[in-house]
Amino acid sequence: MRILFVLITSFLSFASFSQWYPLGNNISGSSDNDWFGFSLSMSGDGLTYAAGAPQSWGLYIIIRTNGREYFGKIILQNSDL
C-alpha cells in the first residue's frame, strides 16, 4: 500500500508541474471535419512530424521544423506522389 501511495504522489507531483506549451500557429487540414491530426507521428529528434486526415481522401502532410520556428515547411503531402 505504501508503494502505491508513493507512486500516486509522485505522479500527481509530476503531472501538476509539467506543462505543454504550443509553438507557432495551428496547422489545419484541407476542410472542416476531415479529422486532420487523427493520426500523428513524430521523429525521434522531434523535428519532423507526419499528420493525417483520413476523412479527406487520405490527406497526410510531412512537416519539418528547425527547432526554433514552429513547423518550418511542408516537405511532402499525398498530392506529391
Describe the 3D structure.
- By secondary structure, the chain is α+β, with helices and mostly antiparallel strands.
- The protein has a domain at about 35-80.
- It is about 20% helix and about 25% strand.
- It is built from 1 helix and 4 strands; from the N terminus they run H-E-E-E-E.
- A 4-stranded antiparallel beta sheet has the order 1-2-3-4, with no helix packed on it.
- A hairpin with a 5-residue loop joins strand 2 (about 50-55) and strand 3.
- The longest helix is centred in the first third of the chain and has 16 residues, at about 1-15.
- The radius of gyration is 18 Å and the shape is globular.
- The termini are far apart.
Topology:
Layout: H1 2-17, E1 39-42, E2 48-53, E3 59-64, E4 73-77
Antiparallel strand pairs: 1-2, 2-3, 3-4
What keywords describe this structure?
single chain, 81 residues, alpha+beta, four-stranded antiparallel β-sheet, 1 helix, globular
Principal-axes geometry comes out as globular
Computed Rg: 18 Å
Distance between the termini: 56 Å
Largest sheet: 4 strands, antiparallel
Uncertain runs: none
* Overall helicity: 10-25%
Tell me how many strands there are: 4
Mean pLDDT: 66
Number of helices: 1
With strands numbered from the N-terminus, the spatial order across the biggest sheet is: 1-2-3-4
